[in-house]
């Protein structure tokens, strides 16, 4: 008998022994519980809606099925796209003879966090110049939101209430709830106009108690694709300053919304210029296509003042303790790729080209979808398709219509009517428009 066959037989014997032990244990444990965590203490959780939608799409064998659910960029052939600049940076890193896989510091790769800080706050930010900003590498934007939420829960003088837009990214609710932070909402999306309910938003912010936290999406609002104008951002900042409210800024799409990095961080720069203390969550999933590498950053900015440098040092020390207990050290490879690009002028320019490629294709798909719906004379107003911005569009379709889209036309989208515009391309946009037209006319 060969050593390979012997090893196989030994593995099979061990498997049978384990199975026999399990079976005999079950036979001999009548009347006892298999777990300390009974159903009333630990009930079955509902499947995550978005990942459940993805699984349903994969099971579908229809040749014209359309995936508009998950927020990941796809090229015109509905395939994931590895950015040109990411391929270049990846090759440079892999060929570096000094590359190793040692732990990063708790706060992350320094050259990454400093570059990320300049990117999101602005290279000439007074917060950076005055040493009032602290930055931590996180497990993408999700990890950044969690780190910020955990800090607020642990160190706020009084338990603050966090106001989330209605609607918002679904994970915001879970993250803040899981750390015990109170949640309320402010109006955001007007279902009639399919645009921003600015008056409702501002009215609720005005009525929020002093010290409340207002979570804001600086660009490409998820899930609606509706953003305030610069003038509206200025009004929001003015009201929040008067009420002494804390801005919690979650930015997952810088450069991906308009194709301009400086345009997409306008709100953040304005709040800093107005002298706010605030925090910023930053993701490199979308704008670098580094979805699985989980590269992100969390930034804390202290308001101007004589004790700014001391305050940010204290806050950073506590953030480090939280980070240590949560993940110990952040993952390295995605941060190395982003850092290589952010710190190299030639690669940075290539990245900006890649951003324009992605944002430009999405803008073209918005125009194409609007054109197809107009040709079909689909009932309703569809101007919001082109006036909204970024990866997502709130179509205005009802939950019942979304269900018809999936069951009748094999189009997969979240039940609130949100679609990922990146899932549309020249091969399926006409099919999708006809499906929309059908359910709108016949629902």
Descriptive labels:
443 residues, alpha/beta, Aspartate Aminotransferase, domain 2, seven-stranded mixed sheet, two-stranded parallel sheet, globular, disordered N terminus
The order of strands across the largest sheet is 2-10-9-8-7-3-4
* Number of separate helices: 18
The stretches of 5 or more residues where confidence is low (pLDDT under 50) are 1-13, 15-28
Tell me the fraction of residues in β-strands, as a range. 5-15%
What's the main sheet like?
Answer: 7 strands, mixed
Classification by helices and strands: alpha/beta
What is the domain total for the residues? Answer: 2
Apparent shape: globular
CATH superfamily of the largest domain: Type I PLP-dependent aspartate aminotransferase-like (Major domain)
Distance between the terminal alpha carbons, to the nearest Å?
69 Å
Tell how many strands the DSSP assignment holds. Answer: 13
CATH topology of the largest domain: Aspartate Aminotransferase, domain 2
> Compute the gyration radius: what is it?
25 Å
Bin the helical content. 40-55%
Notes on the structure:
The protein is of the alpha/beta class and 443 residues long. The chain folds into 2 domains: 49-81 and 360-442, Aspartate Aminotransferase, domain 1 (Alpha-Beta Complex), CATH 3.90.1150.10; 103-343, Type I PLP-dependent aspartate aminotransferase-like (Major domain) (Aspartate Aminotransferase, domain 2, 3-Layer(aba) Sandwich), CATH 3.40.640.10. It is built from 18 helices and 13 strands. The strands form 4 sheets. The protein has a 7-stranded mixed β-sheet with strand order 2-10-9-8-7-3-4, sandwiched between helices. It has a two-stranded parallel ribbon with strand order 1-12. The longest helix is centred in the last third of the chain and has 32 residues, at 345-376. It is globular. The N and C termini lie far apart (69 Å). Residues 1-38 are annotated as: Disordered. Its EC number is 2.6.1.1. Belongs to the class-I pyridoxal-phosphate-dependent aminotransferase family.
């Amino acid at each position: 008998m060969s050593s390979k066959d012997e090893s196989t037989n030994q593995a099979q014997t061990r498997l049978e022994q384990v199975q026999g032990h399990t079976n005999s244990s079950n036979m001999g444990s009548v009347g006892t519980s298999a777990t300390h965590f009974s159903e009333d203490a630990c009930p079955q959780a509902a499947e995550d809606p978005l990942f459940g939608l993805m699984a349903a799409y994969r099971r579908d064998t229809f040749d014209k099925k359309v995936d508009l659910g998950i927020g990941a960029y796809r090229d015109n052939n509905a395939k994931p796209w590895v950015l040109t600049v990411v391929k270049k940076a990846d090759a440079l890193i892999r060929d570096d003879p000094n590359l190793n896989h040692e732990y990063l510091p708790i706060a992350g790769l320094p050259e990454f966090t400093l570059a990320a800080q300049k990117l999101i706050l602005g290279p000439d930010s007074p917060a950076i110049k005055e040493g009032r900003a602290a930055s931590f590498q996180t497990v993408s934007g999700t990890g950044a939101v969690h780190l910020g939420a955990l800090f607020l829960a642990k160190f706020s003088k009084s338990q603050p209430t966090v106001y989330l837009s209605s609607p918002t990214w679904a994970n915001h609710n879970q993250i803040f709830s899981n750390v015990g932070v109170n949640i309320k909402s402010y109006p955001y999306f007007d279902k009639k106009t399919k645009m921003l309910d600015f008056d409702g938003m501002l009215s609720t912010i005005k009525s929020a108690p002093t010290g409340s936290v207002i979570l804001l999406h600086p660009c490409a609002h998820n899930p609606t694709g509706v953003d305030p104008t610069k003038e509206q951002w200025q009004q929001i900042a003015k009201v929040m300053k008067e009420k002494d409210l804390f801005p919690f800024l979650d930015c997952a799409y810088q450069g991906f919304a308009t194709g301009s990095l400086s345009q997409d961080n306008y709100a953040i720069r304005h709040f800093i210029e107005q002298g706010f203390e605030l925090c910023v969550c930053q993701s490199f999933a979308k704008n670098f296509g580094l979805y699985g590498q989980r590269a992100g950053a969390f930034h804390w900015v202290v308001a101007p003042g004589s004790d700014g440098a001391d305050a940010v040092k204290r806050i950073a020390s506590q953030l480090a303790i939280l980070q240590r207990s949560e993940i110990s050290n952040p993952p390295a490879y995605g941060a190395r790729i982003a850092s290589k690009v952010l710190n190299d002028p030639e690669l940075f320019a290539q990245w900006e080209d890649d951003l324009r490629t992605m944002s430009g294709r999405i803008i073209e798909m918005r125009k194409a979808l609007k054109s197809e719906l107009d040709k079909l004379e689909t009932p309703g107003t569809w101007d919001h398709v082109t006036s909204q911005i970024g990866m997502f569009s709130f179509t205005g379709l009802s939950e019942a219509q979304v269900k018809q889209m999936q069951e009748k036309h094999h189009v997969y989208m979240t039940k609130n009517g949100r679609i990922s515009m990146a899932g549309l391309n020249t091969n399926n946009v006409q099919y999708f428009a006809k499906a929309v037209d059908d359910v709108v006319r016949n629902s």
